[in-house]
Amino acid sequence: MMMQASLTEQCISTSCQQVEQQLVETPLVAAVRWNAAFILSQLLVAISLIYLFKPTLLWVWGQIQTAENSFHIIGVGLLVGLVIHSVVAKKRQLTLSFQIKKLPLVVFTVGCLIFLLNERLTGIHIFSATLMLITLYGFLGFYVKATSWAKAFLPFALLILLLPFEGYLDIYLGFPLRLFSAEMAKHFLSSFGVSALTSESVILVENKAAIVDLSCSGLKGLWAGLIFYIFLTWIESNKLSLSWLIGLVLFICCLVGFNIFRIISLVALDLVLNLPQLANYAHTMLGVLGFVFSCLFGWLLMRLQSGNIQISPKQESMNTNPPNLSLISKGLIKNDCYSLALILIIITGSIFLYEPLPKQQSMANKKIELPVDFNGKEVAFLPIEENFFKSNSANAVKYQFEWSGYQGSLIFVYSHYWKSQHDPRNCYFSQNITVDYEKTLSLSAEYDSKPVEIKYLHLNGGQNSGFYWFQSPTKKTADYSSRVFSGWLTPSEPWVMVSVAWEGELSALATEKFVGQVYSHIKSQF
């Protein structure tokens, strides 16, 4: 009996082990286990991406919240609405399934690397935001079909262009464009016997100067033109090909070429023919005509290209097949987990390698005092000013003063770190002070062999005025873009930002006298 009971227990034990082994090796159990790991991996990837791009996301959110960017919010909303309408109207089925693909992996990896380099070497937020969107576009390619990913390129490009970045574009892209335009205009005028010289974005003809400023850079026309060309490609359903790229290059050349023609015409009217009033009338008219003609040229190039995207029968059959429902298979989910682990390694490595541009310390104990004959005192900064200067390690001081019967306030910012200084117009915008119009003045006087440029601002309907410039031991400019590029090329050179706000307006003679006095005073401090 005991022997029989022992055999029975042994049989039961063996049967339990077999059942347990079968249960463990059941494909459904294995699939559930790998599916849980797959979902967890996706959550980790999403959290890691948010953590990597957190500073950039916060910056973009801050830009969107400003009142002047409401147009961009509307534009992005319309773009999203068009995408949704396109999906619904064509009854497209969006099936999301994760799979590593070569081209999206290249876009994703290169986007991460360039993002890290930009954060470390330049710290330019607009480039970081653009690279973030490019990286996310590559990440999207892991979840959608190759054809859908390719079609998403145009909406993504429009999204980048519709973000509120054009105010920053003149600083980083508009300045080189203005230098190029001024140089081309000089060569063209010289070929017709007009003796012309250029100093950065200033064209000099017989001791008279023309400033190639933001309104003449052609950057806004180029920005609007790119939106037009990409949007036209999208609604015309043109395929992205070499001919499309050649058309885009020709379209950009047309925009830039017309802008150079406008600059040449304005310089010829103003400085050569002495017709400044006619030049003022022609300024806007030539800009509009050039943009309209360029858009017509771009539309013609688009019509010359091939028509709608043709899908081969093989591709069409692949697109119309129902989604693969075999995700519960152990092998596929297991491979997806390994692929997600690779993406997670790339993102985690980027997080550990992430190092933003270090804030250079301001020059200790270096403070620009008012000239001795100025009747003034040092005052506290407004909270918004103090936060900016503190966050960028700036050595800044603010005075209220009286000079020759005029009352005003003055800010000196002494630093070799270009981010410690800023475009003073942003201060007025942030304080709801209206900038009615602005102009660049080139002042020539005995205190320097070369003219000194200042940016003059007409504020609050004439109740106030202001001007500013940037000054180093070797250079002087009213162009913040020039200051930024100099900071990249010669990071050890000290600069002083001078920003003055007045109650009322100064006469031309008083402006020249004040600028000369302050300029000479700062020059003696280096």
From TrEMBL:
Residue ranges crossing the lipid bilayer per the database entry: 43-64, 70-88, 100-118, 124-144, 156-175, 217-235, 241-269, 281-302, 338-357
Short name of one Pfam family: Exosortase_EpsH
GO cellular component: plasma membrane
Keywords: Cell membrane, Hydrolase, Membrane, Protease, Transmembrane, Transmembrane helix
Membrane topology: Multi-pass membrane protein
Coiled-coil stretches: none
Gene Ontology MF annotations: peptidase activity
NADP as UniProt keyword: no
InterPro entries in the cross-refs: Exo/Archaeosortase_dom (IPR026392), Exosort_XrtO (IPR030996), Exosortase (IPR019127)
Location relative to the cell: Cell membrane
EC numbers: 3.4.22.-
Main location: membrane
Any one Gene Ontology BP term: proteolysis
Top-level taxon of the source organism: Bacteria
Protein name as catalogued: Exosortase O
Source organism (scientific name): Spartinivicinus marinus
Lineage: Bacteria, Pseudomonadati, Pseudomonadota, Gammaproteobacteria, Oceanospirillales
